[in-house]
Design goal:
The protein is α+β, with helices and mostly antiparallel strands. Helix content is 25%, strand content 23%.
Length: 585
């Protein structure tokens, strides 16, 4: 139902008022009262060629770290401004004035006068000529997992204390005099191997060589048992530099204990090392089932991983992983190579991926264990119903607008809003190029816009939702909707394969989508899904189904906690004549 003329007028007035007070790139919120300019450039010894990218101006009230490492959503996050640069030549200046959009303060003209630690950084873009005919400029991952503040090749300046007075007519000049060095490959061990292949599918899509990689954890006795063939466990998650959570040596006795504010635990670094060594001891023990575990490297020009599905903007990552990378690994490392012997698990991004891959490739995998998954029902896209809400940032009432929270702790205390998180991303990169969470969801789920970049689900500045994009999301990536829509054909192929876990105080409100999905799954009768959905009482993000241990410990045990369920699934579902013995030495 369309809004009344009066509501439409009030909505336009509200947006106009917001733009007037917020200070976007389209206008100068402080006008002539803020004559200050900051000019950032680089010299020929940094790059002899013109560069494309996102120039960032970083301002901190403290010197605890470089400003580039202090940009975050939380209360301690520092200030950043950003402008796009195209063909910026050596010596040419990128200018920041009161009209440039910033976060958390939106205009340079509103920075209180004072002394600050200031830094400039250029996040460099490449030009891609994709197979769909679009030419786009994006930051290719360079081995760091899509982090603009440590991406090799990016230029930045030595931090310096600068007095900023927005009402003083002057130009502050910053020269980028440092370059982030390249990252070396991780070492191999007896148990951990690394593979990298050029993907034919992704290379064709992106118009340049594109690669997939993986870290492979080999079972004890691998070299001594060439006749064995092993089941494969895919541990989905964010970009792994090396295989995590596996340590062949005891914890470092000289390690200075740190403090985890998230879990309120002292010495969490020691706890992590001990858990990693515990896995090594179990993995190499005499009674542990022998399997392959892999962590996939699929960083791309938008994010530290692809969400492991095919996408109009990212390309056919789902097919490339399932039909190129995994068969390569299974052939090289003696995998069984059949769907009944492949399993998926992971948390957060990895939880969504585990469930999505199982749904989109139902016969290629035999079970998924999805912990704290990213939104699996877009009626609860965190706290936004993208089909019914008109604005993602606010709940509009007759007399007030209520901001939607974006992050909470287990007591419900809010540290940021959805609007604030999206505004930070907008400063870090336009056109879904921030390399961060809301932008990658948009890049994966959206159709391609006319400009070649992902079509926005909502206006990044105002939060106004595009219902046409929401409808596209629903039919292509709303996992609960797809399950319900296609259950007649999917249900028999997913019987017993779906397992979902989430804390009921998830920091990002992800439990809401799990509730909605559970309601559908429990209503299935033809067939009944015969899986599992479970919740952790007052558990925050990354709860994965362990009702016995606290969250800070259970999140370190993904590689062992699902194993009994995997073995039970193999016992129940392996086809007649399947190899159930060669890997049980």
């Amino acid at each position: 139902m369309s809004a009344s003329p009066l509501k439409q007028i009030l909505g336009l007035l509200s947006i106009a008022a917001f733009l007037l007070t917020a200070g976007c790139q389209a206008g100068s919120p402080s006008g002539d009262s803020a004559p200050l300019r900051v000019a950032v450039s680089f010299t020929k010894n940094m790059s002899a060629d013109p560069l494309d990218g996102r120039m960032l101006l970083l301002i901190s009230k403290n010197d605890e770290q470089e400003p580039r490492f202090q940009i975050s959503d939380g209360p301690t996050g520092q200030q950043v401004f950003g402008v796009d640069v195209d063909g910026l030549a050596p010596g040419e200046e990128a200018a920041f004035d009161a009209s440039v959009f910033g976060y958390p303060i939106q205009s340079l003209g509103d920075i209180p006068a004072g002394e600050y630690l200031v830094q400039g950084l250029l996040h460099i873009y490449e030009t891609f000529r994709r197979a769909d005919g679009h030419v786009v400029k994006l930051p290719m991952d360079r081995g760091e997992g899509q982090h603009w503040n440590r991406a090799p090749g990016n230029l930045y300046s030595t931090p310096q204390m600068v007095r900023i007075d927005p009402h003083k007519k002057e130009v502050i000049r910053i020269t980028l005099d440092q370059k982030i060095p390249s990252i070396s490959d991780p070492p191999e061990t007896k148990y951990i191997k690394h593979v990298k292949i050029q993907s034919k599918l992704l290379t064709e899509f992106w118009g340049r060589p594109m690669f997939l990689g993986a870290h492979v954890l080999l079972p004890e006795g691998f070299d001594e048992h060439p006749e064995a063939r092993y089941p494969l466990c895919v541990f989905h998650g964010h970009f792994p530099y090396d295989l995590g959570g596996f340590r062949e040596t005891p914890p470092d006795a000289d390690l200075e204990p740190d403090y985890s504010s998230r879990f309120d635990v002292t010495g969490y670094n020691r706890i992590q090392q001990q858990a990693a060594h515990d896995l090594y001891q179990q993995w190499t023990g005499p009674d542990f089932p022998r399997m392959l575990i892999i962590e996939i490297q699929h960083a791309n020009p938008f994010y530290d991983d692809s969400y492991a599905v095919n996408s109009a903007n990212l390309g056919p990552y789902g097919d490339a992983i399932t039909y190129e990378l995994i068969p390569y690994i299974e052939e090289k490392f003696q995998g069984i190579g059949e769907g009944w012997a492949r399993f998926l698990y992971g948390g957060s991004t990895g939880g969504w991926e585990a469930l999505a891959v199982q749904v989109f490739y139902p016969d290629e995998y035999n079970g998924c264990f999805a912990a704290c998954p990213d939104p699996i029902d877009f009626r609860a896209y965190t706290l936004v119903n993208i089909y019914e809400d008109t604005n993602a940032y606010y709940i509009d009432g007759d007399w007030k607008r209520v901001p939607r929270p974006g992050h909470r702790n287990f007591l419900g205390q809010v540290s940021t809003t959805i609007e604030q998180s999206n505004h930070r991303e907008l400063v870090l990169g336009t056109n879904s190029r921030s390399g961060d969470q809301w932008d990658i969801w948009q890049a994966v789920y959206s159709p391609v816009g006319e400009d070649g970049y992902p079509k926005p689900i909502w206006d990044k500045l105002t939060g106004e939702i595009d219902p046409e994009v929401a409808a596209y999301w629903r039919e292509n990536y709303d996992l609960r909707h797809i399950l319900e829509r296609d259950w007649k054909t999917l249900g028999p192929r997913l019987h017993g394969k779906l397992h979902i876990y989430c804390g009921d105080m998830d920091n990002y409100y992800l439990n809401n989508a799990v509730y909605l999905t559970e309601a559908f799954l429990e209503s299935t009768t033809d067939p009944y899904y015969s899986g599992e959905v479970d919740y952790g009482d007052r558990a925050e993000h990354c709860w994965n189904g362990d009702q016995e241990r606290p969250n800070h410990l259970s999140r370190l045990r993904y590689n062992v906690m699902y194993l009994p369920k995997i073995l039970d699934r193999i016992r129940k579902s392996a086809p007649s004549g399947a190899d159930l013995t060669s890997w049980r030495y």
